[in-house]
Amino acid sequence: MRSFVTRLLLPVMVAVLAACSDQKSARTEQPAASPATPPDSATTSPVPAAKPAAPDTSATHNVAAYLAGLPVSKASGLRPLTAQPGWQSYAADAAKSWTNYHATRTTKIEAWARQELDSARAASPTIFYPFSGPDFLNVTTMFPTSSTYVLMGLEPVGSVPRQATLANPRLFTALKASLWSVLNFSFFRTNDMAVDLKSVELDGALPLMMLFAARTNHQVEAVRYIQLTPEGELAAADTAAIQRPGPKMVPGVEMILRTPAGQKKTVLYFSADLSDWKLGTTQEAALKYVRSLGPLTTYVKSATYLMHKTYFSKVRNLVLERSNYVLQDDSGIAMKYFRPAADWQFTFYGTYKRPINLFAKHYQPELTTAYADTANPARLLPFGTGYNWRPNESNLLLAHRTTPVQ
To answer: What is the pLDDT at residue 332?
Structure first.
């Protein structure tokens, strides 16, 4: 770790790496060593130009590790904070919670997905996850080899936490409360999460996305604030715009990750209301951007049945038009919208009974009929997911377009 910063470390165009530091940084550590001096122009033997030094990414990753209750590097400015009893207690509890989570969920999802999603994974460089909130955890477990993940939700983008926030003893209680439902039930309780995180100035989705990246063995290499133009193109955004976006702005953040095997991943999160009315206000920038990505695989889980409703028709139609695969629970797109049905091949998993009482009006007789088909019985789903989170009560549908979109 070279320095602790609260904004993205940018590569410079010279051969000297300078650690970027914003006014809110609590300390500045040693900068990266300068590369060797270029040869004198009078040298007779041509020497290849030196490559620009790689940016120091350890500061950003150490924030993610700290939030996750994992060790930070020895040179990190966060190192003294990890000696505090509050963090050590949090880290011990986190180790137990994540060990249990991986044993009861991750290993089961991974084994199931290797067998059932092999074809989908091979054809899914880009995953679209609408109504996701900060849930990088589930989508990367389902689709670990994808290179681009586009998440959208109502939660604010947020920022890399300041050191003062990380030193706040209330941070650990807030993180535990926010993670409790996703680790136990597979979904966020969005309202509770918002209250918990705001109490310690964790101001949106980004801190939890960073935490999930660290806990799924990704190195967080860079964070960049972005926004969408009305034409649906990516543009840089400053911190002020991200924290107080205007009504027509679609703010976002981009994380660059690296797997232990060296694969680069790009994770984008946009704070976007995907209702038809709001998309009109923002000139459908979010959908234009997604449409520009080419063929998609769409993942939907615990989406409060929004795409069942008439006033979420634009995002629903986009998914149906541009997806070669859709993996969802029953809170995603209602079966009646997969028309013509001959364009899709359906594989049903688990059990379908009825939605929980809160969403009882979104019961689908078509799904009951499909799950009762003894000629094409539903396949095993060995883990719980969605609102009916208990094992043997959950369902997933894999819809595969018979004629791929290009």
So the answer is: 98
- Nearest CA to 84 out of 73, 98, 69 is that of 69
User: Would you give the distance in Å from CA 106 to the centre of its chain?
Assistant: 16
pLDDT at 390: 84
* pLDDT value at residue 14: 33
What tokens appear for 175 in the block?
């993180």
pLDDT for 199? 58
Q: Which residues pair with 268 in a beta bridge?
A: 150, 254
Q: Distance between CA atoms of 44 and 102, rounded to whole angstroms?
A: 60
Helix/strand/coil (H/E/C) assignment for every residue in the chain: CCCCCCCCCCCCCCCCCCCCCCCCCCCCCCCCCCCCCCCCCCCCCCCCCCCCCCCCCHHHHHHHHHHHCCCCCCCCCCHHHHHCHHHHHHHHHHHHHHHHHHHHHHHHHHHHHHHHCHHHHHCCCEEEEECCCCCHHHHHHHCCCCCEEEEEECCCCCCCCCHHHHCCCHHHHHHHHHHHHHHHHCCCCHHHHHHHHHCCCCCCCHHHHHHHHHHCCCEEEEEEEEEECCCCCEEECCHHHHHCCCCCCEEEEEEEEECCCCCEEEEEEEECCCCHHHHHHCCCHHHHHHHCCCCEEEEECCCCCHHHCHHHHHHHHHHHHHEEEEEECCCCCCHHHCCCHHHEEEEEEECCCCCCHHHHHHCCHHHHHHHCCCCCCCECCCCCCCCCCCCCCCEEEEEEECCCCC
The pTM assigned to this predicted structure is 0.84
149: helix, strand or coil: strand
Ranges of the chain with pLDDT below 70: 1-57, 185-201
Give pLDDT, residue 319. Answer: 98
Q: Are strands 395-401 and 323-328 parallel, antiparallel or unpaired?
A: antiparallel
Tell me whether strands 344-350 and 395-401 are parallel, antiparallel or unpaired. antiparallel
Residue 338: per-residue pLDDT: 96
